[in-house]
Amino acid sequence: MRKHVFALVDCASFYASCEQVFAAALHKKPTIVLSNNDGCIVALDGLAKKLGLKRGQPIFKHQEIIRTHDVQVFSSNYSLYQEMSARVMAVLAEFSASIEVYSIDEAWLDLTELAADDLTELGRTIKARVRQVTGLPVRVTLASTKCLNKIACELVKANPQYRDVLDVTQFTAEQLDEALSRVSIEDVWGIGPKYARFLSNYGITTAKDLRDADERWIRKCLTVVGARIQMELRGTSCFPLEVKRPPKQNIICSKSFGKEITSREEMAEAVSTYTARAAEKLREQESLTTRITVFLRTNAFHQDAPQYSNSFTIDLPHPTAFTPELFTYALGALRAIYQEGYSYKKAGVELSRITPMPVVQPDLFGEVTLSEHNRQARFMYIVDALNRIYGRDTLYFAVQSIARSWKMRQAMLSGRYTTRWDELVLVT
Amino acid sequence: MQDDLSNVRFLGSISAGFPSPADYKESKLDLNELVAPHPLSTYFMRVAGDSMVGACIYHGDVVAIDRALTATHKKIVVARLGDGFTLKRLWIMHPKMYLRAENPKYQPIEVSGHPDFEIFGVVTYVVHQVQ
Fold this sequence. Notes:
The structure holds 2 protein chains of 2 kinds.
Chain A: E1 6-11, H1 14-22, E2 31-34, E3 41-44, H2 46-50, H3 63-68, E4 72-74, H4 78-93, E5 99-103, E6 106-110, H5 119-134, E7 138-143, H6 146-158, E8 165-167, H7 173-181, H8 193-201, H9 207-212, H10 215-233, E9 251-261, H11 264-284, E10 287-298, E11 309-320, H12 323-337, E12 344-356, H13 370-390, E13 425-427
Parallel strand pairs in A: 2-4, 7-8
Antiparallel strand pairs in A: 1-6, 1-7, 2-3, 5-6, 9-12, 10-11, 10-12
Helix pairs in contact in A: 4-5, 11-12
Chain B: H1 2-5, H2 31-35, E1 42-47, E2 62-66, E3 76-81, E4 84-93, E5 96-100, E6 109-110, E7 117-127
């Protein structure tokens, strides 16, 4: 059988790079992007890393570095990142019909059919094409399995001499041994911290150790998944591309508030907004839900303030994806748990027990007829389409309100350069 | 002649009578097809200032920019120059390269050897509001 060839394409410092494409002044300046509510660093470019900044650090600890080095700070601009990600993925789809979009800034390509002689050259072509169309830098690694690709990706990050492209199918046995012996066991793709600790106890501390371990023992202790990881390290592909992702089994919409909520009305707005968003995601994956949970909590870090957290779950009489109906249940659940006298930091909505859209079970009590169901589906289809075309919240339900004083803090938001006419980049 | 019949193939059915207007249903004109035939590599920016009035590009206009096109002599381009984006005509007089405004008020800017110059893309369309 012919060897598989997979490419892993990974956008370098994706959020920060997106900002840099559209802000000329950022060129050669360290750039960081903050989490929701502008709390911590979620993305940073190479220059910011050199200053010692790291992902996950709270921003307030680094005001000094930011001032002295003129670090450019941005709130997360998801509209921009999503749109740029879609462009990257569309470029990658030009190279292979089999593409798995693994995350907003990573994708796998199956290049087996292409039968390219020089994979490094192909990797450079992919990199150049993405750069030309989007202005974004990517790293491309090529290997016969996903696990080896993940390891190659770390090698590329750590070794600038590869210039962002590495074909490990060309590695000699010695080169591969050398590379695998440098990867510690907890960094092997698919090995969780628990298994990593377990394996270390048996002297298996690197990817090479795992590859060369006794396969029967691995299968016994790490189950079939562990055996597959071992096979992948040996160069046999066991994890094919998941070209169509299976629909999610539960959908959670939850965020910390920019400003703590102290009134029932504001909390109802927040919960309604999360419900609407969750319902939209539900319809996006063509599903219906039969269970809704609402939860809320105060700020655990304010130790002197009174603390409270609670959640409430409602099982629905029939599967639905109809936003107004879900509002009724969400607000009912909220009434059951909302307590006056607390400052709430976070709330959320979870939809679970999800079923695919087509199998609408006629409700035994006849509450929702098929024609009523179709009418609701058409209505939500139009709402979703308008919001997709004209931007989120073009149409929204009155309970969601407009003020949203509790909304995410995004003080340093850049323009939505690719999705809003009134926020285009200015050119002189 | 008999043999020729063996070459006759079924090409499709035709209906007699007058065609119904419904048979000619086409999708509406889509401005995107005209202004951004390559949506993947096309970006939009808004013009500020009067440096390109000679090329009929005015303050407030929206320009469509294709990143995938190669910038050559006399093409109108958007370029990053220092701290901002600029819209000018690219002028290549080997070995020198300039960005030229289309307005006598502004001097050409030499960009050959400029440490902070990079082409963003080539301008393909201008959207101008008349009233």
